[in-house]
Write a structure and sequence with these properties.
This is ATPase. InterPro entries: P-loop_NTPase. The protein is α/β, with parallel strands linked by helices and 182 residues long. It has a single domain, classed as P-loop containing nucleotide triphosphate hydrolases (Rossmann fold), CATH 3.40.50. A 5-stranded parallel β-sheet has the order 2-3-1-4-5. α3 crosses α4 and α5 runs antiparallel to α6. The longest helix has 21 residues.
Length: 182
């Protein structure tokens, strides 16, 4: 491999709860698999899911470094990583990979009504109220905290497959769709 093809590429997908990160991740994985684009997927929420939360020990970065080393050893160079706040921490996550990846950071957005409706599909009672409150707070914090270089994609009325295609095109992993002349 030459230096251009040996360089890794990290795609970060973040956004408030109820914005469609997981659905988009699954759609992106299916799209890339269908297009035979070699890639790995990591759901960042599970890299440091513990109680008490070990954030002060940077366990997310430590675990990402270890997991990515295994993928890289097997020849993977494209990583899709999802986590609510990942676009805010693009530099830290890229550094944790240890191989100076190119980064495409995407913040998924949705209006309150759409996000709340999606949350209501998976949460109930007090848990729903807590998730809605955290989601609303995260939406404001993410919009303020993500730099302008982070791509913003509105999922309010978008199908996860369409959002996944937009992300794959932004990353340069698939060509833009061409439409036949009418």
């Amino acid at each position: 491999m030459n230096a251009a093809t040996d360089r890794s590429h990290l795609v970060l997908i973040g956004g408030r709860s109820g914005v469609g990160k997981t659905s988009t991740l699954h759609a992106l994985h299916a799209l890339l698999t269908e297009a035979d684009v070699r890639h790995a997927v990591i759901e960042g929420d599970y890299l440091d899911l513990a109680h008490p939360a070990p954030h002060e020990h940077r366990l997310t970065e430590r675990n990402l470094r270890a997991v990515w080393a295994g993928y890289r050893e097997l020849g993977y160079r494209r990583l899709v990583y999802t986590n609510t706040v990942s676009p805010r921490y693009a530099d830290d996550l890229a550094a944790a990979m240890g191989d100076e990846p190119r980064v495409t950071a995407v913040l998924l957005t949705a209006d309150d009504e759409a996000a709340h409706h999606r949350l209501a599909q998976r949460e109930t009672g007090d848990e729903l109220a807590r998730h809605v409150e955290r989601s609303d707070r995260a939406a404001v914090e993410l919009e303020r905290g993500c730099p302008p270089s982070v791509h913003r994609l509105d999922t309010t009325t978008a199908d996860p497959s369409a959002v996944a295609r937009q992300i794959a095109v932004l990353a340069g992993w698939v060509p833009p769709a061409t439409h036949p002349a009418r």
